[in-house]
Amino acid sequence: QVLFISSSITAFAGTLLTHHLMYAGLSSFATDYSIMPVASVVIGGAGSFAGAVLGASILTFLNEYLRFMGSFRIAIYSLVMVVFVLVIREGIFPFIVRRYQQFERKVEIS
Question: Do residues 52 and 40 lie in contact, with contact meaning Cβ atoms separated by under 8 Å?
Fold first, then answer.
């Protein structure tokens, strides 16, 4: 049931996008648009909304910074995702939160 509901929502979103663009071709459904949401969740962290937003911010900056490389930036995305999956498995946001909690000091208020 969940697969059916998510497929229906996705089909409706694709229909609205096609209606808005008045064109349905490969350029409107490029690989960048399908990789970016998954990569932002992998890089930012799947446990929180803030992690996905942080991952999307990092990838948007990386996308604009590597714009001159053309299609090669997809390979850079893949390399960054592999590094994050192997080194920081939970994503960067939980990693930052955990590091902050390690160095957080307890201050007594008198």
Answer: yes
